[in-house]
Write a structure and sequence with these properties.
Elements: E1 10-13, H1 18-30, E2 34-37, H2 43-48, E3 58-60, E4 65-67, H3 68-76, H4 81-92, H5 96-108, H6 111-119
Helix pairs in contact: 1-6, 3-5
Length: 120
């Protein structure tokens, strides 16, 4: 019997952004990811990303690419019990898919503010 070994999901993020780096490290400390900053992308990884990939975070799995809010949703679903429970509740909201991207954009567009918050 041959068992296929799957690579850990790659969390692709803006490694020039302090808040983005903090978020990636938070996820990595609570889940199993390979962190890949934009500056470290291989040509093959870059080819899998959507045009304008620098505008948000991404999660690359062996068979899918999740971007922006959808990426964060998938990342949180792979973390600890608190984050998984929060995502389960979020997914129960009617129309959560329509809320996901505007919510992501609202948070992402205020990265400088959130960066000050997490630095303490």
């Amino acid at each position: 019997m041959v068992v296929a070994v799957r690579a850990p999901p790659r969390l692709v993020y803006d490694d020039d952004c302090g808040f983005c780096t903090w978020c990636a490290e938070y996820a990595d400390s609570r889940g199993v990811f390979e962190l890949v900053g934009f500056s470290e992308l291989t040509p093959d990884q870059r080819a899998r990303l959507p045009r304008g990939y620098e505008g948000c975070a991404h999660l690359l799995t062996d068979d899918a690419v999740f971007s922006c809010g959808h990426a964060v949703e998938e990342i949180l679903a792979r973390l600890g019990p608190r984050e998984r429970t929060a995502i389960k509740l979020f997914r129960l909201l009617p129309g959560h898919e329509r809320l996901r991207e505007p919510l992501y954009r609202t948070l992402a567009d205020r990265r400088a503010l959130w960066g000050r918050v997490v630095r303490g």
